[in-house]
Amino acid sequence: MTTLHHYDLWGWYSPAEIPGRSTDVDPGSVPSARVVGQPWPNWIGTEWAMHDYVEPPAIEPPAPPAVPRKITLGAFQKRLVPMRVHAIDTSTHSKCVALRSYLSRLTHVDLEDPDLPLMLGMLVAAEQPAANPEFPGSGPLTADEAAQIIAAPVQPQEVP
Q1: Three-state secondary-structure class, residue 15
Q2: How far apart are CA 107 and CA 102, in angstroms?
Q3: Which of 24, 35, 59, 113 is buried most, with the most CB atoms less than 10 Å from its CB?
Q4: Which of 17, 4, 7, 19 is nearest to 49 (CA)?
């Protein structure tokens, strides 16, 4: 039976079994303990070589993947406030019509889309939608509200 000798990611001999990191080449005489600066077997691809042991660098865990900043159209409308959405939907003002047209072409809203602040900025600059007494709570979108709509963290229920 073949005896396997294991090595870590940096080629240093390991008395512990490391799946997928082994060779049947005998490392020869192995010191009783690893000591920084003292000879220790190092696998160099075809043979073991004695090198002064150096502690391998710590492996930093990878950064978590970026969370997509995409939300459903319904979630976007809730961020706008439903009564304001009704006022936009019934408005004939060109900026409200432009926003409706823009949103009608989307399957979701990407909060990182560079066009989104511009579209909301049009409403802010035009002080739209106008307050509509039929929709209590409607009224012009403010710059702070537009910024909050875009900056708010995406909630699990908002994800498409």
Answers
A1: coil
A2: 11
A3: 113
A4: 7
Scored b (16 or more CB within 10 A) or e, 53-65 reads beeeeeeeeeeee
Cα 70 to chain centroid, rounded? 12
The residue ranges of DSSP E strands in 10-160, in sequence order, are 13-14, 22-23, 39-43, 48-52, 70-71, 109-110
Note the pLDDT of residue 2.
Answer: 84
Residue type, 25: V
Q: Which of 82, 105, 97 is nearest to 128 (CA)?
A: 97
- According to DSSP, residue 8 is labeled -
**How many whole angstroms separate alpha carbon 111 and alpha carbon 134?**
29
Question: What token pair was written down for 153?
Answer: 């963290």
Neighbours of 129 (CB within 10 A): 26
Q: What is the mean pLDDT of each run of 10 residues along the chain (160 residues)?
A: 92 95 95 95 96 93 87 95 92 93 93 94 94 89 96 94
